[in-house]
Amino acid sequence: MVIAGICFGVLGSIVALLLQWFSLQQSGTDSASKHGISARTSSRLGGLAVMVSVLVFFAANYFENSTSFLNDLETYGNHRFGIFAIMCCAAMGLAEDLKADFLSPTIRLALKFALFAGIIFVWPDLVPESIGFAGLDYVLSLPIVGAVVVIIFLVGFINAVNMADGANGLISGIAFFSILLFSIQTGSVVDEGFMAACGVFLFFNVVTGRLFLGDAGTYGLGAALAIYGLVFFNAGVFSLGFLAALFAYPCVDFLVSILRRMLVGRSPFSPDNEHLHNRIHFFLRSRVRSQVASNSLTGLLISGSTSGLVLIGYLNQWWSCSSNEWGYFFALECLMYGFVFYLTGLGRRSIQHSAAI
Predict the structure, then answer these.
(1) In angstroms, rounded to a whole number, what is the distance separating the alpha carbons of residues 169 and 285?
(2) C-alpha distances in Å from residue 186, one per residue of 71, 179, 190, 193
(3) Which of 66-70, 121-125, 266-270 shows the lowest mean pLDDT across its residues?
(4) Using 50, 70 and 90 to split pLDDT, how confident is the model at 44?
(5) DSSP-assigned letter for residue 99
(6) Considering Cα of 174, then 175, then 181, then 185, what sign does the dihedral take?
(7) How many CB atoms lie within 10 A of CB 351?
């Protein structure tokens, strides 16, 4: 409450209390073993809590300056289909949070494809005209094929965000840094309210470890980040390299996880505890006494050294946010991912080998 109050005023403290209430609810409980690095049984209602928190900040902004809020909200009128898609994704995830296996993975995947197929049909401007690569530019120029590519990207990115969720502050940190950057770019009180809700959740999640985003949070935030990214990219505000650097961790971890599972003959979507955040947590937990602290430190290290550094670079104007020179930073993130993945795997392999003996 103190941290939230310092950063977001009295309303931040009130929202922190709201998150505390959500964390005490019996619905949507998550076992400590769910993510492989959890230290306690927690609530999966974080996504619902974030949505309610956004509405609280929106209401406060409206009562503080209704004209400014309504003007900013009106600028999102053209993006109403995107808002609808975000809400649908969050609702789909919430159904899973409240009742496990309410929808099978196959049905959820099919629903996401159908949802975004409909969104692209009514909002074709979401498909980029060009991304700077000749082959892909030709594919995007083909109406149906280009739409399919964007649909696959949207669904894949949401699944990547969902798969990367686990460490306290990892996905919520990436979302907070990203939306803070977006709100600075737009100066919109709507974006500021969204950013504040993510910020309070980040603090609560990191400090207590009692409230996870759940599928509602990862699906909703994943859809929001992907749609935000496409809108900014199509408007020429952010380059492909900049967005790749900003969203590097969930995308790289998703692709690496699929590849390493396929290499050993497993289903590419089968769960395991070999994500980079699992490995970093394994390294930290023997050196940090508190299990919550080691979990939270894992999430903050990853989100801070990827999206957080991009935010710092944006503020200090390392490169223009419309420059593809940010691709060099993305390449560095990929190299660091591989280097840390290798180093953190050494101890795990030695212990696993000793246990087998």
Answers:
(1) 16
(2) 13, 10, 10, 13
(3) 66-70
(4) confident
(5) S
(6) positive
(7) 12
3-state secondary structure of 42: strand
The partner residues of 42 in beta bridges, in order of sequence, read 30
Name 29's bridge partners: 43
Q: Encoding tokens for residue 341?
A: 């993945």
Task: Report whether 168 contacts 205 (CB < 8 A).
Answer: yes
> How many helices (DSSP H) and strands (DSSP E) are in the chain?
16, 2
pLDDT band (50, 70, 90) for residue 357: very low
DSSP per residue, 263-326: HTT--TT---S-SHHHHHHHHHHTT-S-HHHHHHHHHHHHHIIIIIHHHHHHHTTSS-TT-TTH
Tell me the C-alpha distance between 64 and 9, whole Å.
14
Instruction: Report the alpha-carbon distance of residue 147 to residue 142 in Å, rounded.
Output: 8
Tokens of 13: 């403290």
Bridge partners of 211, per DSSP, are 43
Cβ(171)–Cβ(165) under 8 Å? Answer: yes
β 42-43/29-30 pair status: antiparallel
350 has a pLDDT exceeding 50: no
pLDDT tops 70 at residue 29: no
Measure CA 253 to chain center.
12
Q: What is the pTM of this model?
A: 0.89
Instruction: For 148-162, write each residue's pLDDT tens digit.
Output: 999 999 999 999 999
- As given in the structure block, the two tokens for residue 356 are 């087998």
Q: Give Cα 200 distance to the centre of its chain.
A: 15
What does the pLDDT look like over 211-254, one tens digit per residue?
Answer: 889 999 999 999 999 999 999 999 889 999 999 999 999 999 99
- Which candidate, 179, 185, 278, places its Cα nearest to that of 220? 179
* Backbone φ, ψ for residue 42 (5° rounding): -135, 180
CB 86 within 8 A of CB 220: yes
Per the structure block, which two tokens stand in for 120? 């692209």
